[in-house]
Amino acid sequence: MATGTIILPLPGKFDDTNPPGIIYTNNAAKVLFDDTTQEYMQWAFRMPANYASAPLLKVQYAMASATTGNVEFECQIMAVSDGDSANIDTDSYDTANSNSASVPATAGHLDEISITLNNDDSLAANDYIRIKLSRDADDATNDTATGDAEVVAVTLEYTTT
To answer: What is the CATH number of the domain that holds 26?
Structure first.
């Protein structure tokens, strides 16, 4: 078995109600997740045929201004297999997966948070999937850093067949 990687392009599709901001620095996108408003970004695609198990979302980010505290990201998955009775036009995400980390001591420095996706909506090879990413802005215990978290790269890793 090996590791497969899907690079999720930035920006993804933004939530219609509370979209994160976006800026470009040196022609590179930064998606800005607020510290007080729950904002979402999502992607939709077909899971590769070589998917076996153990999905892991890796989020690379920097803080716009914070140099102390923690930041927490959440990820939800919706997976629909061929023949399922689920309507792909209706959100049916599994329970959120999350992870947090201490922010870098210098604003603008890169850090990475890996989120183990145990709640994966019975994800299988060739499924149509949606992945929703958000900063857990309403968690005053695990997300204490102030200001925007600037997401610069997101990948989905998994074990292959």
So the answer is: 2.60.120.260
CB within 8 Å of 27: residues ≥ 6 apart: none
Task: DSSP letter for 117, please.
Answer: -
**Pick from 127, 152, 149: nearest CA to 69:** 149
The rounded distance, in Å, linking the Cα atoms of 93 and 99 is 18
DSSP 15-60: PSSSPPEEEEETTEEEEEE-SSS--EEEEEEEPPTTEEEEEEEEEE
Q: Is residue 37 part of a domain?
A: yes
156 vs 81, 104, 146, CA distance in Å?
19, 23, 27
- Whether pTM exceeds 0.85: yes
Query: Could you tell me the residue range of the domain that residue 69 belongs to?
Result: 3-81+93-160
The model's pLDDT over 93-132, given as tens digits with 9 standing for 90+, comes to 999 999 999 999 999 999 999 999 999 999 999 999 999 9
Distance CA 129, CA 148 (A): 28
Cα–Cα–Cα angle for 109, 19, 155, rounded to 5 degrees: 50
- Structural domain count, the chain: 1
